[in-house]
Amino acid sequence: MALIDLLPKHLFTTRGWGLLASGAGSMLLAQIMGRRDLLALGILLVVLPLVSLAGVRILKPRFQVFREFHPSSVETSSTATVRLAVARTGAAAGPVIMEEQLPPRFGEPPAFRFPARAASGGTSRYEYHLRSGKRGQFRIGPVTAEFCDPFGLSLHRHEIDDGDILTVTPAAVELPATGLAGARGNDGVTATRIRANPSDDDVMTREYRHGDPMRRVHWAATARHGELMVRQEESVTTPEATIIMDQRYSAFVSGSAAVFGPAHEDAFELVSSDNFEWVVTAAMSISAHLADRNYSLRFLDAAGHPAFRASRSAPYPETEEFSGLGGLQSIAESLAAIQLSGPRHVHGERGRKEAAVVEGAEAPFDDHLMDKLAAHRLRGPVLALLGNMPLSEARALAPAAGYGANAFALVVTDHPHHVQPVIEALKLGGWRAVAVSSRTDLPAAWAGFDQGEILAAAAAAMDVRRGAAVPR
């Protein structure tokens, strides 16, 4: 390895190091030979690079940096285009080498020369692309500029801006059309009113369609026609859905479960786990699925508070109701940096209660959550995205099913067969509950709810054809 390669690269150029070496050699020869002219030359050769080094640090050029992301927030595994505009605001100097600093996950930082060949009006423009397979918020930048003095002896490298935050949102998985939300019209609305006290003769009925809830089956008409018939309702309103999103550390990290967290004091790393990442993807996918059907959405955490109030990427942390495309975008941005929170070492029911007292918060699934659900009673489905929970919490949550037109729960755990008592407790309360793991295919889990309803409808139709007693 050449000696020049061992010298620091951020102080002097090769020319500068050469002058320093020559100056040191001249002074050494002057000492040996007693030559004052060599001594003067040596001093000049040493002082010149040092003066240049001081000059580039005191009289460094100034720049302005403008950075834009297109789109402003990007989904995981999608490409974002970064556009930079750099303008010099100080005294003109020679060419400058610039480099955009990036988090390691984005690969090698892009480097470019200033001014660019196509610079116009004193502003140089650059463009490059980024892609992240992980959600979150990432600092892009700052741009560092490396320049030298007019003689090309010394170097200086410094940051010329503060960087900007790129938000990477979870990508939605396309879910199959199911009857989880009840019957939908062409415009995505749901019927809500039936004529008062209709008789078997004057009620309007139609054949059962995929997605019609069983509670609207007209049993007398079903018996006459030999196939499932439902009541035809008259008026419509925009449907609502409530999503309960558990985000407690103790619910998603236990035993040997892998957990991600901040490393090397990186403030942008998230505390998460494979199971919680599955829940985040499910929340985004279900939101997109229901928003496409004109649902308004409400997000709550396990205690009944706005689900995104602790997410640093949330545009409106205290908001819990979302509607339209703008609402869906807010949900996506809020989910970008949501992470696990709460006590990290909670053992048993007593430990959970003590933790709640220490945190100054309500216990999960208590009256505060029930009051929130009661305020929107029967206006649409309730969906719960849950982690590991003790049987006592499942029993506390079970009655919440009565506040929704339908109630569905996904319990994400490393060992689905170990949580069957929890699943049974939820089912006794009226939930349609399924245990899944982070390896479970989300569309399959979503469709699994609907398969149960179809089987129930088919069984009811068979009972009617066989002359079974028709409930009134």
TrEMBL record:
<keyword id="KW-0472">Membrane</keyword>
<feature type="transmembrane region" description="Helical">
    <location>
        <begin position="12"/>
        <end position="32"/>
    </location>
</feature>
<dbReference type="InterPro" id="IPR002881">
    <property type="entry name" value="DUF58"/>
</dbReference>
<keyword id="KW-1133">Transmembrane helix</keyword>
<feature type="transmembrane region" description="Helical">
    <location>
        <begin position="38"/>
        <end position="59"/>
    </location>
</feature>
<keyword id="KW-0812">Transmembrane</keyword>
<protein>
    <submittedName>
        <fullName>DUF58 domain-containing protein</fullName>
    </submittedName>
</protein>
<dbReference type="Pfam" id="PF01882">
    <property type="entry name" value="DUF58"/>
</dbReference>
<feature type="domain" description="DUF58">
    <location>
        <begin position="205"/>
        <end position="250"/>
    </location>
</feature>
